[in-house]
Amino acid sequence: MTSAPGDDLVTDTIEIGLFAAPSLILGLLSLNLRGLLGKSLSLCAMVLAGITLTAQSHAVETRPPWLSRPTMFLHAVGIIFWIGSLLPLSIAFARWGAGSKLLLQRFTHAIPFAVFPLAGAGMLLAMVQLPSINALWVTPYGQVLSVKLALVAMVFALAVWNRFWLTDGAIGGERAAVSQLSRSTRIELILVVAILATTALWHLTPPPEDLSKDRLKRERASQQTQ
Questions:
Q1: Which of 140, 89, 149 has its CA nearest to residue 119?
Q2: pLDDT at residue 144 tops 70
Q3: Is 34's pLDDT higher than 50?
Q4: What is the pTM of this model?
Q5: Contact 142/208 with Cβ under 8 angstroms?
Q6: Rounded distance, CA 176 to CA 165, Å?
């Protein structure tokens, strides 16, 4: 007896919550600790969260697993770092000061190391899971991916605008740049929520690669029973 797609979504959500609990605890502990210990706990929390998202993703079932699993992990960790940085940045912009400026500088130096692996891993996963380019609009999985890519493009456009047109001004103390960065970061947060909501639909739309494998299995089972 097979479960309904909605039941699978609820089950996956519960499993993610259970597995994510240790990373959440480590992350909260790291907020109250400074120095190497705090950074180590924060890193462990991010790695555990990346493992949790990777384990719950359809991508880990894509062949070859030696490529899809580490690629999905890089993608997940990049997402976690980026999303996890937006809320503190938004708060820092609302309460601008010397600490806010330091946080913005650190984020500016660190974010390329998250964004480039994130984008590269995402493109590689799409190439592995989609049999052809037209699968982007003729399959439910591809249609969800198309919506996600459109939202991601908006976030990237905002990020580029923030980095090259607003960041230097904000660090230099321009209040107008700080205000625009604050507004832009809030928009990014809204877009990120939309991206996560869109990504959740993949629990209801298996990749074309998986559908092909299921169809092949059914055909083989039908031939064996004849």
A1: 149
A2: yes
A3: yes
A4: 0.75
A5: yes
A6: 12
